[in-house]
Write a structure and sequence with these properties.
Blueprint (H helix, E strand, L loop, with lengths): L4 E6 L3 H13 L4 E7 L3 H10 L5 E2 L3 H5 L5 E4 L6 H10 L3 E5 L6 H14 L3 E4 L6 H11 L39 H5 L4
Parallel strand pairs: 1-2, 1-4, 2-3, 4-5, 5-6
Helix pairs in contact: 4-5
Length: 190
């Protein structure tokens, strides 16, 4: 039997709860959530209990990275993607980081360089990239059915801001200093 990939989750908020943890659990023996870290340790403990995990709840990212995890998922506010991701890559673990990859092109490029230098996987969680309608459009473009794409217009509408709708109470989405919000977190899909 193949070795289970030991994954650590950094940031135990809604996206980790409804997307990352269930996906790892669905891998049925191929991966295990081995460790959790959140700025609020009580949140990580509740996450562990609610999902029936047997993960170690670590106090710090350093503690998690010093364990024997093979990979980590970074699902924290945007401004922390770069420093935490660089820390993980330098520790020699593979990485899935929530979108956007970083808050600047320079940070994104530095992360890509570091992953290449360390020969580690760096993947950005662009979940809508694999939505069937987008896959079909790409298939049609690649097949030449549509012709050369010169311009694309997208529209996506919500009635509420992220902190009130899909991520109730997640105030970082609407704090300018944390660089979350409609452009960085919603429009990035388009």
């Amino acid at each position: 039997m193949a070795k289970k990939v030991k994954v650590g989750i950094i940031g135990c908020g809604k996206i980790a709860r409804v997307l990352h943890a269930p996906a790892l659990i669905d891998l049925k023996g191929k991966a295990v959530i081995a460790g959790l870290v959140d700025s609020k340790q009580s949140k990580a403990r509740k996450f562990n209990k609610d999902l029936g995990l047997e993960a170690v709840v670590y106090k710090t990212v350093d503690d998690l990275l010093a364990s024997d995890v093979d990979a980590v998922i970074v699902s924290t506010p945007n401004t922390s993607h770069f420093p935490i991701s660089m820390q993980a890559l330098k520790a020699g673990v593979h990485l899935l980081v929530e979108k956007p990859i970083a808050v600047s092109l320079a940070e994104a490029k530095a992360m890509i360089r570091e992953a290449g230098k360390r020969k580690r996987i760096l993947q950005v969680n662009q979940t809508l990239r694999f939505t069937p309608v987008y896959c079909k459009v790409k298939e049609l473009i690649d097949a030449g059915v549509i012709g050369e794409v010169m311009h694309c217009r997208c529209l996506r509408a919500h009635a509420e801001s992220p902190d009130k709708g899909r991520s109730k109470g997640a105030k970082w989405f609407v704090q300018k200093k944390l660089r979350g919000g409609l452009i960085m977190d919603i429009a990035v899909h388009m």
